[in-house]
Amino acid sequence: MAKCLDLSFIFFVLYVFTAAIAMARNLEEESSGDTEFVKASCEITTYPDICFRSLSSYASEIKKRPRQLAETALAVSMARAKTAKTYVSEMADYNGITKRQHGAVLDCVEEMGDTVDRLSKSLKELKHLEEGESGQDFWFCLSNVRTWTSAALTDETTCFDGFGGKAMDGELKTLIRAHIVRVAQETSNALALINDFASKH
């Protein structure tokens, strides 16, 4: 009797072990498929490498859903815009800043504030849309998302335009440019993914 129990236990352990391996393989394949979806989707953006680096870590949450991908891209862009706004506002106290540079920094802070606001509106509006949904309300909401995201991209460009001209050249301009350009790249990618989502309806 004891030997039967021992064999039963061994078979049970082997069954659990085999099932665990199979489950792990399925999860790994699913995760790999989700990551490939993100990578393939990013290829249609202007900055595919940045897109993939920014979004690949969210692949398991996105799960091959175009709307979720666009939503995540917007959230990443908004987070980066908030960071950039804080960074630029701190540059108002930059050592040796000129009056003209100071004015450009303050204008840029305002533009980045508008960027954050518009991306936030886009994100909220996009959350109301469902995969596969279509109709008048759908296209109205999607139009709002596109408009606000495009306006945010314009704000980012306007921010940096304030530092135009040789008189504004220098470390301050270089530091601010690095942050604003990255926000603009992320926003451009988000807009491309929004348009891709729209094309599937």
UniProtKB/TrEMBL annotation:
GO MF entries: pectinesterase inhibitor activity
Endpoints of the signal sequence: 1-24
A Pfam entry, by short name: PMEI
Keyword Signal: yes
Residues annotated as transmembrane: none
Keyword field: Signal
Highest taxon, organism lineage: Eukaryota
UniProt entry tagged with the keyword Signal: yes
Residues annotated as domain Pectinesterase inhibitor: 33-193
InterPro entries xref list: Invertase/methylesterase_inhib (IPR035513), Pectinesterase_inhib_dom (IPR006501), PME_Inhibitor (IPR051955)
Similarity comment: Belongs to the PMEI family.
PANTHER family cross-referenced by the UniProt entry: PECTINESTERASE INHIBITOR 7, PECTINESTERASE INHIBITOR-LIKE
Full protein name: Pectinesterase inhibitor domain-containing protein
